[in-house]
Amino acid sequence: MYTLSYQPPYDWPWILSFLQGRAVEGVEIVTENRYQRSFALGKHAGLVTLEPDEKKLCLNVTLSDGLLPVAETVLQRVKNLLDLDKDPQQVLDSLGALASARPGLRLPGCMDPFEQAIRAILGQLVSVAMAAKLTGKVAKTYGKKLEDNDGWYLFPAASTLANCDIQQLKSLGMSLKRAEAIVHIAGEVVKGQFPLQLPDDLEQGIKNPDSIAGYRALDRQLFCPAWLAGQRCFPAG
Predict the structure, then answer these.
(1) In CATH, what number is assigned to the domain containing residue 131?
(2) Residue 105 counted as domain residue
(3) What pLDDT was estimated at residue 38?
(4) Which of 24, 162, 184, 213 is the most exposed place for a label (fewest CB within 10 A)?
(5) Closest CA to 115 of 14, 189, 17
(6) Any idea where the DNA-3-methyladenine glycosylase AlkA N-terminal domain is (predicted)?
(7) How far is residue 231's CA from residue 107's CA, in Å, rounded to a whole number?
C-alpha cells in the first residue's frame, strides 16, 4: 500500500459524492469512504483502490500487482484526479469569501485524458446519470475484461474506438454525431494529433479541437489540456 499526503482541509464527502454520481459501471465503484477503478497504462493493468485517512491526513492507495511496475505514474494520476497537491491557503488567498464558504473543496481532474475526452462527448446535453450509463455501455462493449477480476472492464483504448463501427456505436444509445466524434477523436489520438498534455500556449490548446465534429465550445474548455495535465482551469464566461 502507498500513502499520499495532502494539506487540510479536504472535503472528502463532497469529492467522493461527485465521483459516485458519475461512476461508470464496470470501471468504477464508489462508496462513502472508498473509490475503486480499473486502470491501464500501456501493457500494465489492474485495480486502483483509494481510501482517505482523515486522522493521518493521507490517502491510502492500493494497486493490484499488474500496476506495480508503473506505480509512480499511477500515483501521479491519482493526485491529478483528486487535486491532492493543491494548497488550500493559496486558494483562500485567491478566492477569498468564495473559498471560505466551502473549505476543503477541490477541483476533480482525471486519471486518463482520453477517457475524459470520451466522457465529455457522451455528457453533452444529457443528465449526469445518462452520461455515466452511456459510458458504461461503451466500456463493456469495447473494453477488455480485466483478467482475474470478474465484472471489471478496462476503458477502451483509442486504437479500439478508432476502428469501431460507427453505426454499432450509435446503437448503444447516442446520436450519430456523438458516435462520429468519438471515432474521430480516437483516430486523432492514435495519430498523435489530439493534445493529451499541457501545451505551451494554453489558449490555443483549448481552441485546437474546433474542427472535431460533435465537440462543443464548453467541452473544449472542460477538457482543456491544462486540466488533463493535472492543472486546473475554469470555463470562460
Answers:
(1) 1.10.340.30
(2) no
(3) 98
(4) 213
(5) 189
(6) 1-112
(7) 10
Residues linked to residue 60 through DSSP beta bridges, in sequence order: 3, 51
Q: How do residues 202-223 score in pLDDT, each as one tens digit?
A: 565 555 555 444 455 444 444 5
Whether residue 120 contacts residue 90, with contact meaning beta carbons closer than 8 Å, is answered with no
For the chain, how many residues are written?
237
Our count of domains for the chain comes to: 2
Same domain for 120 and 95: no
- Please state, in angstroms and rounded to a whole number, the distance separating the CA atoms of residues 223 and 181: 14
Q: What is the pLDDT of residues 183-199, one digit of tens each?
A: 998 998 999 887 776 55
pTM equals 0.85
**What pLDDT was estimated at residue 207?**
58
Report residue 106 as a C-alpha cell.
477541490
- C-beta of residue 114 within 8 angstroms of C-beta of residue 161: no
Provide the mean pLDDT of the chain: 86
